[in-house]
Amino acid sequence: MPSPYGHGTLAKTFALCAAVALAGLASPGALKILLPALTCATLLFALYFFRDPSRSTPKDPSAILSPADGKILHIETVSHPFTGPESTRLSIYMSPLDVHVNRIPLDGVVSRLHYHPGKYLMAFDPGSTANNERMEIGIDGTSCRMLFSQVAGFLARRIVCELQEGQSVHAGSRFGMIKFGSRVDIVLPHTVRIEVSEGERTRAGETVIGRVK
Prior knowledge:
single chain, alpha+beta, Glucose Permease (Domain IIA), 3 helices
């Protein structure tokens, strides 16, 4: 089933595709076949992009789950005012073919929610972490606190986040998405043991990216 976050985009896409297909049917020659075929392909891609598969969330209170589907591009040690010194930052690249629905990594309370306007560098560009448009989310969990950001990319111009500060959240639950190619950056404190490596693929709400020591 398509995600409810995509219903508006899908409705607009369907209306546009219908108009183009009807124009194609009234066109001469090859356009009569080409335009309806292209609109069908566009609509099928949109339905595929906004898919929202169910996930099996591990029942492990020490586990930190991936908030996004994609490929881990970078893992590095950083110092961050929210998570402290010797924290670990992971960057997950979400290609246009990945599921783009984002999920909560651990049980807790949303203690930070800050929108940063910015550029639209390619999502795999290291500079996109600090310079791109992004939504920064901090969670105070029962076992640790963590920070993660929905980062817009070159194609991704729409960040959807339904969270509010002070809201209680549960691991594996959906909270938003980034439309059309993007990345998610996660910052974990030194009390979390990282259990993934660069190049590994993740599934939101299912892959354990770390565990509290």
